[in-house]
Amino acid sequence: MKIFVASLPFKLEENDIRETFEEYGEVSSVKLVLDKETGRKKGFGFVEMPDDEQAKKAIEDLNGLEIFGRAIAVTQAEEKPNGGRRPGGFGGDRGGSFSKGGYQKGGRDAGSY
What we know:
Elements: E1 2-6, H1 14-22, E2 29-34, E3 41-48, H2 52-62, E4 66-67, E5 70-71, E6 73-76, E7 104-105, E8 108-109
Antiparallel strand pairs: 1-3, 1-6, 2-3, 4-5, 7-8
């Protein structure tokens, strides 16, 4: 089971997280998410445990645990829809040019500019 862990103190390392979760069973992986530009920790990550019952017990016991003055949030990770891709953004799904009315401003068709 994949577990989402948030509100992590920035000084925690992956090994610290692994040791905490290993008290509940085997841990197959730990991944702390880093900022792509700075390389700094973003304060959340993921833990994978192969045994669902052990993972559920870890979630139950560790959610709200205070570490270095911060209560961590521990939940079952949700699968991303669309294979991990987010809808929208700059993917060109706005539908055309000004003349075709694909862009709007203030709720009106911008094709009349």
